From TrEMBL:
<dbReference type="Pfam" id="PF13947">
    <property type="entry name" value="GUB_WAK_bind"/>
</dbReference>
<keyword id="KW-0808">Transferase</keyword>
<protein>
    <submittedName>
        <fullName>Putative wall-associated receptor kinase, galacturonan-binding domain-containing protein</fullName>
    </submittedName>
</protein>
<dbReference type="GO" id="GO:0016301">
    <property type="term" value="F:kinase activity"/>
</dbReference>
<keyword id="KW-0675">Receptor</keyword>
<dbReference type="GO" id="GO:0016020">
    <property type="term" value="C:membrane"/>
</dbReference>
<feature type="signal peptide">
    <location>
        <begin position="1"/>
        <end position="32"/>
    </location>
</feature>
<dbReference type="GO" id="GO:0030247">
    <property type="term" value="F:polysaccharide binding"/>
</dbReference>
<dbReference type="InterPro" id="IPR025287">
    <property type="entry name" value="WAK_GUB"/>
</dbReference>
<keyword id="KW-0418">Kinase</keyword>
<keyword id="KW-0732">Signal</keyword>
<feature type="domain" description="Wall-associated receptor kinase galacturonan-binding">
    <location>
        <begin position="44"/>
        <end position="107"/>
    </location>
</feature>
Length: 296
């Protein structure tokens, strides 16, 4: 008489089976940005200087069908320079990357006056400006940790290495403050996510220093390089990258999960029941297709 038994399930086969089903579900519920309906923008401004303009960005004064008004730029100086207004500040648009959904902007006050001498930015900008809410802020910082730079005015000279003198970049070669000729001006680079100098204590500053301005940069290199006023000004002049990725996700994926891949933007159903449902189907299908062994 023969007796039958079901072998202990092969975990590797089970997992493989599950992931195949999961991949199939993912593929059936995703779409790339190339599948979106094209919009006629023949009556829209397509460039400003050397900056290409595509939706959702638009140029002020264009017809309503051009881009989104939340992402409106102005084209100034005889249509050669794209300008963005952001939190009561004005910024030159240096570069737009539509594949990465980013804009690199620079404070309009930053100019190289002569050799290594620079003018200061006109506006302060920190993480506090960004509410990180899709329905309120059209942009968020593109970098997970943009590097903040604070401008300090101090009544006394500061000898700590965390303070970078502005004197070598001032045209009169003095360590002076732009707000007070009798004080000293410094940079401090690198703050925590809330905008506080993580490496600077109140003891370091005492009562002699006050913060006069704060800006953020998306550094081209490691922030440890920013140890001279020239390097710092170069990074400020390079600008900050901001992104409209949240808007792109919301408009294409709604409340579903948004994934940025090499071939575009993809949406994935975020229903937590999908995984458990797939696992159940995988288990049932696995046991139904399991072969019996008959032993003598």
């Amino acid at each position: 008489m023969s007796r039958g038994r079901v072998p202990f399930p092969d975990c590797t086969a089970l997992l493989l089976h599950f992931f195949v089903l999961l991949l199939a579900s993912f593929c059936s519920q995703t779409f790339s940005k190339s599948s979106t309906t094209s919009v006629d923008n023949s009556n829209c401004t397509l460039s400003c200087g050397n900056i290409n303009i595509q939706p959702p960005l638009r140029i002020k004064g264009d017809p309503q069908n051009c881009g989104n008004q939340m992402y409106e730029l102005s084209c100034e100086e005889n249509n050669t320079i794209a300008v963005l207004s952001l939190y009561s500040g004005t910024y030159y648009v240096q570069q737009i990357n539509y594949n990465e959904f980013t804009i690199r902007v620079v404070d309009v006050g930053i100019r190289k006056i002569k050799d290594n001498y620079y003018s200061n930015p006109l506006y302060s900008l920190s993480l506090f400006n960004f509410s990180n809410a899709q329905d309120r802020d059209p942009y968020t910082p593109a970098s997970i940790r943009p590097v903040p730079v604070i401008f300090l005015d101090c009544a006394n000279p500061m000898n700590s290495s965390i303070f970078v003198e502005t004197a070598p970049c001032n045209i009169n070669k003095r360590t002076y403050s732009s707000t007070s000729p009798n004080s000293y001006s410094y940079f401090v680079v690198g703050l925590d996510m809330l905008g506080y100098a993580s490496s600077v204590s109140s003891f370091d500053l005492g009562e002699s220093c006050k913060i006069t301005q704060m800006v953020m940069v998306s550094p081209s290199t490691d922030k440890s390089y920013m140890m001279s006023c020239e390097a710092i000004y170069n990074e400020i002049a390079r600008g900050l990258e901001i992104t409209w990725f949240d808007y792109e996700c919301k408009s294409k994926c709604g409340d579903n999960i948004c994934v940025q891949g090499e071939d575009g933007l993809f949406c994935q159903n975020n229903d937590p029941g999908i995984v458990s449902e797939l696992l159940s189907v995988s288990l049932i299908n696995f046991f139904m297709t399991t072969k019996y062994e008959y032993l003598p």
